[in-house]
Amino acid sequence: MGIKTYKPTTPGSRWKTGYTFEEITKQAPEKSLITVLKKKGGRNIHGHITIRHRGGGNKRRYRSIDFKRDKTDVQGRVVTIEYDPNRSSRIALIQYPDGEKRYIICPLDLKIGDTVASGPDVDIKPGNALLLRKIPTGTIIHCLELHPGSGAALIRSAGASAQMVAKEGKYAHIRMPSGEVRLFSLNCYATIGQVGNIEHGTISLGRAGRARHMGRRPKVRGVAMNPHDHPMGGGEGKASGGQPRSPWGQYAKGFKTRKKHKVSDKYIVKRRK
User: Fold this and answer.
1) Rounded CA gap, 84 and 196, in Å?
2) What is the pLDDT of residue 260?
3) What digits encode the pLDDT tens for the residues 112-135?
4) DSSP per position, 60-127
5) Which residues, other chains included, contact 186 with Cβ-Cβ below 8 Å and sequence gap of 6+?
């Protein structure tokens, strides 16, 4: 995985960086594993915008990812490593002896020809999925289930990883990417290794048009608006805007927004802050 720079023939390309895509082995996705992905423009089922600055962008097809890894005790071979426009990580196409193909999140150092498997007693190596009770303390993991059998919901983005800290009773202590230590059932599945494409965070888009291709629309600063439109707007000359806050008045820096969760609070051993 490499990062390339561009000769600054235009102002937009001066700071632009991109991928070399040297690890990608196939351009077109597996047809049996793609579905239509409709754009929502940040709107919910009622048509209300719940995520601002979304819209446009290139067409995408959704790649169905095997987050449950429920084909147990069967060795699968890595056939291709592909680009997925819907996530920051790369995906690997796994082919099993019976001919079935599935996509998984591609961990670091996984190569074509490697074998992966899932089950309670498979080897401790990148790409294999095991129960937390079978994973040794100190192991780096990703694609972690929140509840047993629900499928991987956490630690799926590029370069992300967590660490098994300890086991106690029915629970495993997992240090999350945020630094939070949390309890998970020992019956949850996790995949060994770190998610690949670790240089994703160093990419510089370089120009606004590249963001539009990704479906990101322009953002306007609150201090540049009128008082009618934003709490930080208005003022004579260039005003600082006062206390940083959202357009609806909620404080943005230092104000704790997390309510008391009676169900999940008991599983947090150490806060991230």
Assistant:
1) 13
2) 77
3) 999 999 998 899 999 999 999 999
4) -EEEPB--S---BT--EEEEEEE--TTSSS-EEEEE-TTS-EEEEE-BTT--TT-EE-BSTT--SSTT
5) 131, 132, 133, 167, 170, 171, 172
Residues of 231-262 as b/e, b for ≥16 C-beta within 10 angstroms?
bbbeeeeeeebeeebeeeeeeeeeeeeeeeee
How far is the CA of 10 from the CAs of 13, 14, 205, 214, in angstroms? 5, 7, 14, 21
In which residue ranges of the chain is pLDDT below 70?
1
Enumerate the β-bridge partners of residue 171: 168, 185
* Residues facing residue 115 across a β-bridge: 77
d(CA 180, CA 173): 10
Q: Are the C-beta atoms of residues 154 and 146 closer than 8 Å to each other? A: yes
CB atoms within 10 A of CB 26: 13
Using the structure block, give the residue that is written with the tokens 């969760």. 261
Give the HSE-up count for residue 4: Cα atoms under 13 Å, Cβ half-sphere. 7
Q: Is 206 left (phi over 0), alpha (psi -120 to 50) or beta?
A: left
Residue 155 to residue 57: CA distance in whole angstroms: 26
